[in-house]
Amino acid sequence: MPRASARHILVKTEEECTNLKDEIVNGAQFGDLAEKHSLCPSGKQGGELGEFGPGQMVQEFDTVVFSAPVGEVQGPVKTQFGYHLVEVTARKD
Fold first, then answer.
1. How far apart are CA 55 and CA 53, in angstroms?
2. DSSP string, 3-66
3. Total domains present in the chain
4. Which CATH number does the domain housing residue 84 bear?
5. Suppose 38 and one of 17, 24, 34, 56 were both cysteines; which one would form an S-S bond, judging by CB atoms 3.0 to 4.6 Å apart?
6. Which residues of 16-44 are buried (b: 16+ CB within 10 A; e: fewer)?
7. Which residues on neighbouring strands pair with residue 16, listed in sequence order?
8. Which residues, in sequence order, are CB contacts of 22 under 8 Å at separation 6+?
């Protein structure tokens, strides 16, 4: 069964999510921004979600994690919880 590890930043608005992505593109550290801005408790660990399999996260999140290139920040990704920036840190099939 495929497994992946990822980290994310969860915020309320698409605009905030886009602004944070711009900061990352311009050199800001993903983990630092997660600690400062993420609404998810994982923010305290730099957004780290650990390892999980397909179906353990909401569908929109799952789709990105199991298809996006490893190490590339994706988003904004809209879910029922808000808007996410997602970075797949590892994946094995």
1. 6
2. EEEEEEEEES-HHHHHHHHHHHHTT--HHHHHHHH-SSGGGGGTTEEEEE-TTSS-HHHHHHHT
3. 1
4. 3.10.50.40
5. 34
6. ebeebbebbeeeeebbebbbebbebebbe
7. none
8. none
The model's pTM is 0.96
Q: Kindly tell me the burial class for residue 71, based on how many C-beta atoms sit within 10 Å of its own C-beta (0-12, 13-18, 19 or more).
A: exposed
* pLDDT digit string, tens, across residues 38-80: 999 999 999 999 999 999 999 999 999 999 999 999 999 999 9
Residues comprising the chain, all counted: 93
Q: Is 77 exposed, middle or buried (0-12, 13-18, 19+ CB in 10 A)?
A: buried
Long-range CB contacts (within 8 A, 24+) of 65-73: 65/4, 65/6, 65/91, 66/2, 66/4, 66/91, 73/21, 73/24, 73/25, 73/30
Residue ranges making up the domain that contains 24: 3-92
